[in-house]
Design a protein that fits this description.
Largest sheet: 7 strands, parallel
Number of domains: 2
CATH topology of the largest domain: Alpha/beta knot
Distance between the termini: 46 Å
CATH superfamily of the largest domain: SPOUT methyltransferase, trefoil knot domain
Structural class: alpha/beta
Strand order of the largest sheet: 8-7-6-11-9-12-10
Number of helices: 13
Helix content: 25-40%
CATH class of the largest domain: Alpha Beta
Strand content: 15-25%
Shape: elongated
Length: about 280
């Protein structure tokens, strides 16, 4: 183990953990893919198992044996002993690392990883019949929860718009419990923000498109016509405002979940789970 005590909080090699924003990490190696931070041993090991390249670890002294050693063993098994042996492991006590990062480390461990290139939409959609589109969803907790539901309930992949929180942002990946590394996803980079471009692109690729929206003229989420479609893309809108009217109008169907007891809507993450369950059961 390449243990490195944290003696200087201003050391530049710690910038990725302490002083760079999520956006700066995303663009760290531009034009090449940047970096992301994974919190907790579970998320870190899922990233390793999915083939993401670790850059360094940040570890609380008290978590070294219980939390960090299984992670390093996982790295050794999947990427070789040499990679695990030379990986920088920055170590200090809990209070010093809390001062450094501004947070208590989740189970005493963070990992920095290299991102991978996102796949262009055309290639990504090959052999995927059930997709979910996250349209401008800006809450990382919701993105993580939707990701977890999509993976658990059998969706084939996720597409996120440019204004959606990136699924590898720290909180999104943690809330997903690392399932972001189990379900394929990509970014609709060529689709203009606020437009219905993504809907038209998916139609060109042979998908029937479904807007989840609170509209009176809607299908029920359990309508058989949805399950009959060979290729289906479900489009979820941002918190509070939902999908723009131009996106809803461009879709083939609008779907809503019946509500009771005066409740007007579900949180977008909860609604996604209901929808995925109905589509895949």
């Amino acid at each position: 183990m390449n243990k490195i005590p944290v003696n200087d909080l201003e050391a530049p090699e710690l910038d990725i953990f302490a002083r760079l924003s999520e956006t700066q990490l995303l663009h760290y190696h531009e034009p090449e893919p940047g970096l992301f931070i994974a919190e907790s041993p579970n998320v870190i090991m899922r990233a390793v198992e999915a083939g993401y390249q670790p850059v360094s670890l940040l570890v609380e002294q008290g978590a070294l044996d219980k939390e960090a050693r299984p992670v390093l063993q996982c790295i050794s098994e999947h990427m070789g002993e040499e990679t695990a042996g030379r990986l920088p492991v920055y170590i200090s006590d809990r209070e010093v690392l809390k001062e450094l990062t501004g947070y208590a480390l989740v189970r005493g461990l963070w990992g920095a990883f290299r991102r991978r290139p996102v796949q262009p939409l055309d290639g990504f959609c090959e052999k995927k019949d059930r997709l979910v589109v996250l349209y401008d969803i800006v809450n990382p907790t919701n993105v993580g929860a939707i990701t977890r539901s999509a993976a658990a309930l059998g969706m084939d992949g996720m597409i996120v718009t440019r204004d959606t929180v990136n699924p590898l942002y720290r909180r999104s990946a943690r809330v997903s419990m690392g399932t972001v590394f189990n379900i394929p996803w990509t970014v609709a980079g060529d689709c203009e923000p606020g437009s219905s471009d993504i809907v038209h692109k998916l139609k060109e690729l042979g998908y029937v498109t479904v807007a989840m929206a609170l509209k009176d003229r809607s299908l029920g989420v359990d309508d058989p016509v949805l399950k009959e479609q060979r290729r289906l893309a479900v489009i979820l809108g941002t918190e509070g405002y939902g999908l723009p009217d131009n996106v809803i109008d461009a879709c083939d169907y609008t779907v809503k979940i019946p509500m009771y007891h005066g409740v007007d809507s579900l949180n977008v993450a909860a609604a996604s789970a209901v929808c995925f369950w109905e589509l895949m059961k």
